[in-house]
Amino acid sequence: MVIIMDRMNELIELINKANYEYYALDNPTLTDQEYDRYMQELIKIEALHPDWVREDSPTKRVGNEVISEFKKIIHEKPMLSLSNVFNEDEIRNFDEKIKKEVNPNYVCELKIDGLSVSLLYKQGKLVRGATRGDGVTGEDITHNVKTIKTIPLVLPQPLDIEVRGEIYMSKKSFNQLNEIRKANGEELLANPRNAAAGSVRQLDSKIAASRNLACFIYHLPNPEQFGIKTHYESLQFMKSLGFDVNSNIELAKNLDEVLQYINKWTGKRNSLPYEIDGIVIKVNDFEQQKKLGFTSKYPKWATAYKFPALEVLTKLKDIIFTVGRTGQVTPNAVLEPVRLMGSVISRATLHNEDYVLSKHIKIGDIVSIRKAGDVIPEVVNVKKERRNGTELDFKMIDVCPICHTKLIKKDTAYYCVNNNCDKTKIESLIHFVSRDAMNIEGFGEQIIEDFYNMGYLKIVTDFYELHKYKKELMELEGFGSKSVNNLLTSIENSKNNSLERLLFGLGIRHVGSKTAKILASNYQNIDNLMLAQYEDLINVKDIGAVIAKSVVNYFKNNCYLIEKLKKLGLNMKYLGEVRSDIEFSGKTFVLTGSLTNITRNEARNIIEQLGGNVSGTVSKKTDFVILGENPGSKYDDALKLNIPIWDEKTFLTKISKYFDKD
After folding, report:
1. In a 3-state reduction of DSSP, which class is residue 611?
2. Are 296 and 390 in contact (CB under 8 A)?
3. Domain residue extents for the chain
4. pLDDT tens for residues 84-135?
């Protein structure tokens, strides 16, 4: 399992470095395919091990890094990215999830390979162009946006409106640009997307003007402001205002029509005058979109189909087994190294015993490896016709490769159930102190492993009794009075964490940080949660049967651990909404404009802690609008609907009795 965690950490460093090179330096060293593969690999690892997710993981970011040379812009509505699907089964799975909630029709669009942009108009005049940035904060590129001929400077109606789209460079313009660069002895640009991104990030607008950029518009963030009820209608509306809306957008009544659209454009993509890297599928009706909502990262009502990935052949030299924090033992293929899309693959997941047997995989086989579309490279199939008789049958091990305890099969996976297995115990301790869990600073993986081997740390309660060994710790090489005191202070401070951090840190199977917060906020304290029955848990929103069963089983078998943590002084209550106020409880607030003494996220958290809700849209259901500097159209909407408005000073005064803000 350390191997998988090491791989996760390596991926985070690779992707963060690639993001900086692409968005800050305009000089990417990874190809699109490499980047997609690394990102998908990381997403899958984090999905399998949500307790490992680092604060600096690129998956926590909706978009990309903001360039410091440009003025920062805060988007009133986040510019979210989309989840990805890679084959027909995954598309059908997306459709099935949608149909559980609504009866949809879809809008299918070509996924333009360029740079996302937000365009803001006041009284029909273009006043700002901004990149997506990290999804919340972008960069002001107005001076370059104004040079793009397909973006209108003035609309036919004096509207206050924001639209979003994709800036791109046509294949023809790209080729012409590279011919010029070649003639000048300059380095050639890798592809049209990189060329477009670099062009709009030029400080000198003359450079952008010379690049013949274009822009397709595909999204209206506030359709209700214009009485529009479907995405397709919004596209026609934006087209009527003079925006360039892609002409190949189609309505699909059902999944079969979606698949027909995908098949058509998969075959025709090379005939287009611009690059596309997939197909976007969106639920058409806005009320249905609202009902479906969002995950923590993506809208549930849309996804992007990425074109099929390449596969390569190589030899499967061996099969090894790794142990995870939960004790799950996973077979992994050791491959003869093969280069695919610019990187070398030497390992691939085999998932579980059933997967290996169903694929008839043998050691020594020539196998097909797929890397994009599956996060960790996997063996797709076996070339049986190339066998020579020297291949060896796969045999699942029956004991833990670390502690040699007999494995137990649960569903399709095998587990080491030895609570004293060194591997699982060390991984559990590392998880407990991680940032999203108890956030105990100063404990690197090596320190925890050393303390474990020395006998100071064996189970999570040992962190809170480490002070008993203060003298011994200060005598260790590399540790002094200051470093040991810092460790002990951080441990003591963690006792005050809210319940959701403890729940996540305990490492309950299937309970990630988001699920931990749902459980904590619904049950308020550990005792209520421990008494919850399976039937109670499955009635909690976003808690399914698998999670409910896992939670019940955990507390059934770990009461002693919870009682000991209580005696050690750890907080067992949810602190997120411990306060309430009659002016906030049950009320809906909308924030608009820039706040100077408090961030918007801080304001949101405070409102929620006092029992209120925060919405991104002003409607008749809005109770109060909090007004910052340079407010947007939400301020006008509030005036029209006669909704009470608080300025920042009023808001700070009302919360001052609960929160100390400078």
Report:
1. coil
2. no
3. 2-60, 72-306, 311-393, 422-494, 499-567, 588-655
4. 887 888 899 999 999 999 999 999 999 999 999 999 999 999 999 999 887 8
Domain 2-60 bears CATH identifier 1.10.287.610: yes
Alpha helices by DSSP H, 275-406: 286-292, 353-359
Architecture of domain 588-655 in this structure = 3-Layer(aba) Sandwich (3.40)
Q: Do 311-393 and 422-494 show the same overall fold?
A: no
Alpha carbons 32 and 309: distance in angstroms, whole number: 12
Q: What are phi and psi of 647, to 5 degrees?
A: -80, 175
Secondary structure element (H or E) that encloses residue 470, with its range: helix 470-474
CA distance 72 to 140: 6
Q: How far is CA 149 from the centre of its chain?
A: 34
Chain center to CA of 233: 29
Which positions are catalytic? 111
Would you tell me how many other CB atoms lie within 10 Å of the CB of residue 14?
Answer: 20
Which CATH code is given to the segment(s) 72-306? Answer: 3.30.470.30
Overall pTM > 0.70: no
CATH for 422-494 is 1.10.150.20
Burial class (CB in 10 A: 0-12, 13-18, 19+), 443: buried
pLDDT tens digits, one per residue of 52-63: 887 667 775 443
Mean pLDDT over each residue of the chain, to the nearest integer: 86
Roughly what angle, to the nearest 10 degrees, separates helices 192-200 and 171-183?
80
The torsion defined by the Cα of 28, 33, 34 and 37, in degrees rounded to 10, comes to 140
